[in-house]
Amino acid sequence: MGQLIIFEGLDGSGKGTQTKLTAQRLQEQGKDLRQVTFPNYESDSSALVKMYLSGAFGDKPDDVNAYAASSFYAVDRYASYKTDWGEFYREGGLVLSDRYTTSNAVHQCSKLPPMHWDGFLNWLFDFEYEKLGLRCRARNCGLHDQIQPRFNMFLPLEGKTLEELMPTFGEKTRYNIRLSARKGVTTRWAGAEELETFFRIYLETCERDGIGHRPLDYFQRMLEAYGPERCRVCLAEYEGEPLAAAIALHYGRKVFYIYGASSNEKRNLMPAYAMQAEMIRWACSLGVDFYDFGGVYSLSKENGLYRFKEGFCHSVGVTELAGEFDQVLSPFWYWAFLRGKPLLQKLLKDNPAGNGHEMTPFVLIRPGGRRPPRGAMAPRPAGPSLHPAPTGGPSMPQTVLHPLAPLITAESHTLILGTMPSPRSRAETFYYAHPQNRFWPVIAALYGEEDPKTSEGRAELLLSHGLALWDVLASCTITGAADSTIRDPIPNDIPGLLRQYPGITRIAATGSTAAQLYRRLVEPQAGLPAIGLPSPSAANARTSFPQLVAAYRAALL
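^ that's the sequence the OP posted. Answer follows.
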């Protein structure tokens, strides 16, 4: 994969000039590159854009809503990629672009109230980079990503040996370390001469997990800068075959686990655990204070990276750091930068899978359309490293933004409201995604149908019966999925949604918290009372499945 460098800015700010000058300079250096600009007025793909800008669809900006206008620009970019520069980019070419999605995002956001910006931008980025298949190498970038994860894993060494630290590890981690030894996995330290072995396994890992990677010379410079006494390559092997590799760095009073990788082969031998044990043993021999596992972006046991690191830091837990702080001079443009930065970071990276450039069936969503969009991934925390100060682990309050657009069509007559998507729903970008939640089985039972099990099928099931789905809150501070911990609730623009979809004549709220928040924050403006429904969560053990079905049937049918 190549690189896509984008020049963004206000009209008249010099984007075109800077693109041209940069291209000239790079060409003088012998770089092979391609220049593109959007909209591409020389292509037939820009026909709708030109009609829109000429006033063919109306002479007022709001005559074409943000979603429709964005679709015009997205199709132009898609056509340009498929017919002009896509193959060049996939073969490793350098592409310079005058404008891309961020300009569209900022201009179209001006048509919407601020409370709708997150929902619109989630839809836009999901549409262009997922639904249209123009995927990027980095995955799961949240809306407010910064440079470093705010949650880190530190293992205090306290002058102990690896054997003395072992009892503090999680039971499964101890088992896997011993298993790798019994199976014959060995570890050794290597220098710069075997860096290519690490790099091969590293690329294999990046391709498997869909993440970005550094070039080989980056690691070469790292080892040269710190020297073999401070920066080492650790290998885990089975019968001479390298299965896992990592780079460890000794600096100050810490040893840092910088980069790690594992082969697709013989993963059942747990080579990564043997490798970590060896690196911790080295850190203990140096007499440093901490072994730094680095950051984690998720605090869910379902996240493999968190589960792996937590096993070694089981007795300590996660350390929440202060994070990064910016001086905000212009709130709007600061907000626009935060939203655009993850996108630009993604665009500068590849899609190692190499197969993410085709259309998917679950695509264009417009007000009044057949299917509404799924939202983007939930925000991930971020921040730089400090000294560890153990906290209470993953159950900590987080301020979350609602990442999903409403599931609704012009034929919808009943709006069902939850409180806020759970961590599982935010991660999977669809409502009631936890497998133990009973919402979708209940809806299927109401109409004598089977639960489709897929997000697309569930959306079709809901919408085909005139039901719509959203949540009461646009943001709040919450611990996990516990509604009882909600603080600082800000509601979604439900009155605006009702004005846009006048066919909605009935509202139902799933759970007592959703009903209470709706009545307090929304009903005075919406003017439509909500029917209280029992929560379909598995935590609501007081209400059996037949009782849920009966209650929902009485309210919705």
